[in-house]
Amino acid sequence: MWLEPILMTIIVASTPLMLAAIGELVVERSGVLNLGIEGMMIMGAVCAFAVAMTTDNGFFGVVAGMLAGMAMAAIFGSLVLGLATNQVATGLALTLFGLGLSGVIGESYVGESRSGLPRLDIPGLSDLPVIGRVLFGQDALVYLSFAIVAGVAFFLYRTRAGLALRACGDNHDSAHSIGYPVLRIRFLAVLFGGACAGLAGAFMSLSYTPLWIKEMTAGRGWIALALVVFASWMPWRVALGAYLFGAITILQFHGQAWGLGIPAQVMTALPYLATIVVLVIISSERARARANTPLCLGKPFVAER
Question: 168-201, pLDDT tens digit by residue?
């Protein structure tokens, strides 16, 4: 049946976007703008693949990808929080650094491949037509992505720690005045965002396409940034947006197979064109764009001494 493979590929294409975007949502909710997601994702991808190939263990590869993303995030956090450097410039520099370093690390792995991450198999359920493999035949990271979205939603709106994080993003001076450690909260948020970006990269090199290709993230970090704005900084909207963009990404492959007559270059550009269109629409509706925007997003905080 044609529907099952389409749904399977949409889920696989959407998962790295959702993982990276939900991590960035937490970072931006704390008041920090991180444009280095692309660099963190690509470092997560290469480190995950290198460790998985060396140890022949996908789990170790996933952990390595998360640690690589967190290491990049720690560099970013130390600069923008410890030294109060410009967040936009630092994030861009981190992306360029990650793209270059990943090429060096992954040079010896170009052309190698391995089997993907093991998939869930529930006898009876996985064999159901259409929904069997779609719902009960994915690998662990697909289910983990939904668990992270649910966990972030609960954390932000049902816990005191989540309230403190949102307070730091909305008014860091007031949060500091009532005793919240603004810089510590933001640094932890940045580390979480790095772990999610590294996890997204690990999914790409271990499950989406279980091999290493230079610059294999192909701009997905920038799409994840746009997804956070598209979702108005709401966790469940991030999930919906990720699957929308994932469907658009997959459309290019199936569109060519269906013989629609649209040039391959146009189909390849569809996800990025959709990103631009969404950002233009959001920018035109300023009231909606400001509704959930963290008021201190991108503004440096220096504690009074």
Answer: 999 999 999 999 999 999 999 999 999 999 999 9
CA-based R_g, the chain, Å:
19
What's the pTM value of the predicted model, to 2 decimals? 0.91
Give yes or no for a contact between 98 and 108, defined as CB atoms under 8 angstroms apart: no
Q: Is the dihedral of CA 299, 301, 302, 304 positive or negative?
A: positive
**Helix intervals (H) in the chain:** 3-29, 37-55, 58-77, 87-105, 131-136, 140-158, 160-170, 172-177, 182-203, 220-230, 235-257, 264-284, 286-291
Q: What distance lies between CA 291 and its chain's CA centroid?
A: 23
* CA–CA distance, 94 with 100 (Å, rounded to integer): 10
**CA-CA distance, 168 to 254, in Å (whole number)?**
44
User: Smallest Cα–Cα separation from 221: which of 257, 194, 185, 239?
Assistant: 194
Whether residue 260 is predicted with pLDDT greater than 70 in this model: the reply is: no
Among all chains, which residue has been given the structure tokens 């993230």? 217
Which residues are within 8 A (CB) of 42 and not within 5 positions of it... i.e. 6 or more apart? 98, 99, 102, 201, 215, 216, 217, 221
The correct answer on CATH 1.10.3470 for the domain covering 3-291 is yes
Residue-wise pLDDT tens digits, 194-221? 999 999 999 999 999 889 988 899 889 9
**CA 18 → CA 69, 107, 153, 200, 258, distances in Å?**
15, 28, 13, 8, 27
Nearest to 73, CA basis, from 106, 98, 48, 104: 98
| Whether the Cβ atoms of residue 195 and residue 48 lie closer than 8 Å to each other | no
Q: Are 296 and 168 in contact (CB under 8 A)?
A: yes
What's the start-to-end Cα distance of the chain, in Å?
66
Cα–Cα distances (Å) from 237 to 189, 220, 242, in that order, read: 19, 18, 8
Query: Which residues are CB-contacts of 66 (< 8 A; sequence separation ≥ 6)?
Result: 44, 195, 198, 199, 202
